[in-house]
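To illustrate this point, what follows is a protein record of this kind.

___
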Amino acid sequence: MRKLKLFLLVAIAATISLYAQKSNTRTINSVSIIGHHSFSQRKLLEQIQLKPGSFLLFSRVEFDRRLLKLDAISLKNYYHSNGFLEVAVKDSFSVINDKVDIFFIIEEGKQYYLNSVNIIGLRSLKEKEVKSLLDLKTGNPYNPVQINTNLALLNEAFEEKGKLFYQFDIKQEVQDSVNITILINEGPDVYIHHAWVSGLELIDSSYVRKEFSFKKGDLFQKNLMDKTKRALLQSGFFSSVSLITHPLANSDSLVNIEVRMKEFRNRGELELEPGYEIIEYVPGVNSLVGLGGSVHWLDRMIFGSKNRFDAKGSVVMPSEEGFVYPRFSVAIKISNHRPFALRLPTQVKVFYQQFKNFGDEEGPYVRRFGLEYANIFRWNRQRSFLDIGFRFELFDESDVFKDQIEQRNFSIHLQQDNRDNPVYPSKGNVIIFRMDAFGGWLKGNRTYTKYDLDLRQYVSPIKNVTVAGRINVGLITGWSDDYDHYEAVLFEKFYLGGSNTLRAWKPLQFMTYQTEYGSTLPLGKTSKMLTNWEVRFPLFWRLGMVLFYDGGQISDSFQTVQWKDLQWNRGVGITINLPFAPIRVDYGESIENPNLNKIHFGILYSF
């Protein structure tokens, strides 16, 4: 009983202490910046963390003295980066009823400009290149912060030329303006003497050596080191790869390379992944995604071999209206980065999928299963790739088709992704080309060829605002009217309408037709032209807004698809920008007929 009373007393004391601490929390009431003339208050507030909370943020900003000091340093660095070398920033604060008013007093001093740059001792690089790397532009405000940041770029440039042991010294003369002298001692060219591998437990070093992009006697070049590191990481066996240089004691022009590896633990890994899923095998629908979950089993070295084993099962409910039932899928994949000692990344996959036809709640489930072989070459942080392969698949919808649909195709899929961020892009571009050749010498129920080209561009004209544009064209050749019998299952033609194409129309129902039973079904065509334009910007908290303009047309003759014939819609969307992906609600209405409108729910941006 005494122990219970003692426990209750301790618990009550702890609760009172925590409440007291919480009640004594000091929050930011205001921030005043005094003495600034060259920059606006808004611009300076962007440089600091301690700011008053907004009622739109649903939170208060707590005061922290350490952050106050860091904010003063941030303001000083901002002024330094704009040529104010003598700036002084003083911070202070006052507290009234747990509300903190912050003051920054700034003495800007004189702004200095870069007058001249003199480089001495440079041989391997051009003077213009060095100035560009260090962002040295005469006539601009002198920016020592940017110079220090960009020294790493200069270091990489010299390493690319084999100048591993170069030295430099930057001297600045500050008078009415700034004159810079850069003294460079490049040193001798450095060559590779020997290389060895360390840290391996299961994998033989000969496998690692096959991925070396350099050999004994080569000039040391950074791109060869980077290429070697990427190739080893892409093999999927190593969690980390480091290339360490060891200078020879009796030579200033030779180095040894230690390739230090850390292997993944050789055991199966089970993952449960709730969230959004990209739905494969709906070729005529742009970027079909849905909510659901998956179970993923991974073994990087199945049975002690160098084959990677992946098994994944998922249940996904498509976000597009009309796909009324969840889609079940199972895929088993075996891949090898170097089969038979060849640099030919190979993947073999068997898959099974079960789903309902579009809008067919009462109809039977369609079963889709098959085999896929592919050689996939990746680059650019794994986001760009060339995929060349074959697919053999069967469809079975018993009680409707007497025979199974058999489809075989050869495909080439190229994606060059130059975006700064694949989920929240603000700049860069994407080029996607896909060609699928069905039937022919591969046999199958149908013979035709499908081409699709997608060009996307992202620019950020002002901070936090992104303008995104897409042009997408497609063409099918060799299509026969007899193939239309399978379209309710395969969706191989081109369709428009929905959250990722024309948002004033229902999903896939830009064009429709009536069945003999009175049902309305999507109508696909053999050629497509689509363009989307968006302006994306934040509102508050995690909320953002999208203004969009979509145009598109589909036809059975590519020659008849003209720009003037495109159907256009406009609209607005609200996004919730979550860490894994944006969730959005879009409203689109037709330009010609405002009564034609639709609200769509989507995951990820439309492109």
In short: Residues 114-185 form a domain with the Ubiquitin-like (UB roll) fold (CATH 3.10.20.310). The first strand starts at residue 27 and ends at 34.
